[in-house]
Amino acid sequence: MTFDYAGYELKFVQQERCKDGSSHQFTRIYKFYSSVTKYYYVLRAEYHEEAVFSIKFYCKKDRKSEFKYSKIINRGDVGNILITCVKAIPILLKDFPDASFGFIGARTLDSTSRKVEFYNNNQRFRVYKNVIAQKIGTLTFEHIEYPEISGYLLINRVTSDLAVKEIAIKRMFAATYNNLGDI
To answer: Would you give the DSSP letter of residue 147?
Structure first.
C-alpha cells in the first residue's frame, strides 16, 4: 500500500499543561477535517521528558469515549488521515528541533463485529510502521519497532548516544503508560 495522499491542513487549537505528576509535561492539540468522512479529527502531540512526543489522534465525535483511540470509523480516507498526522512532525520540529516521536497502535475495539484485537503487532501498528517508514527518512531519525506493544519510535539523531536515549525513552514511557507492559 502506498501513501501518496496530500493529507489535510492541521490547525493549532491550544497547548495545555499536564499536572498529573508524570513525565507528560504538556500537549499540543490540533484539529483537521476530512472531506471524505465528513468528520473532524483531533491530533494530540503529548510532550514528555526526554524530549519525546507521543502522537495520538481520534475522531472528534468520539471524544468522550474512553475507547476513542480504538474505535473504527470505517468511512475510508485512512491515507489522508495518517498523512495528516505525519505532517505534525515537521511542525513540531520547528519549535523542538531535538524532539523524538513515539506512536502506539491502539488495539481495535469494533462493537459492530465484536472484534477485540490483541495488543501485540496489531493492525494499526502494521499500517503506522509502513506509513512512517515511507514518509519519514533515516537522516534525521533512527526508526525502532516494538511489535510486542505495537509501538514505533523515531529517535532524533541529534542525540549523541542513540542506544542510551532509547533506553531512557522506554523507561519513561513504561512508567508513564503503565499499561504498555514490560518494554
So the answer is: G
DSSP annotation string for 82-144: HHHHHTHHHHHHHH-TT-EEEEE-PPPEETTTTEE--STT-HHHHHHHHHHHHHS-TTTEEEE
Distance CA 134, CA 176 (A): 29
Q: Supply the pTM of this predicted model.
A: 0.88
Q: Name the grid cell of 159.
A: 542525540
d(CA 50, CA 76): 35
> Contacts from 13-21 at CB under 8 Å and sequence distance 24+?
13/42, 18/46
| The pLDDT of residue 13 | 97
Dist CA 27 CA 43 (whole Å): 10
Which residue has cell 497502535? 105
Q: What is the dihedral of CA 165, 171, 173, 177, to 10 degrees?
A: 180
